[in-house]
Amino acid sequence: xxxxxxxxxxxxxxxxxxxxxxxxxxxxxxxxxxxxxxxxxxxxxxxxxxxxxxxxxxxxxxxxxxxxxxxxxxxxxxxxxxxxxxxxxxxxxxxxxxxxxxxxxxxxxxxxxxxxxxxxxxxxxxxxxxxxxxxxxxxxxxxxxxxx
Length: 148
Prior knowledge:
Blueprint: H1 8-27, H2 31-36, E1 43-47, E2 51-57, E3 66-71, E4 74-81, E5 100-107, E6 118-122, E7 125-131
């Protein structure tokens, strides 16, 4: 387990971001989406003893539409889902599926071995496996019993 210096400012910024996202999702209004045509795919993040796994819902996209990069321990997933029939857009009564560009970034802990990240894309789901470094994996320590 890595020791990370506590930063109250970082905690407050994270809380602020989470609250803003929560209110945007509850209201159904995201000012960025309305103005720029961007959207944000649903993402699940889980962790095991050996790796962190990220799954992103990207239906209607191909691997060519998606870029995954790591820089300074920040993982970024970005891409664009184009509107299917731009010339027939005026015939729609309602458009609820989101189109346009998206951008998601995640600060990675120092325990992740960024040289071994693996990405798979199948059935509209991007799965990222972020293995942990060997030295950061939990190690069982046996307890020796000494006679009295």
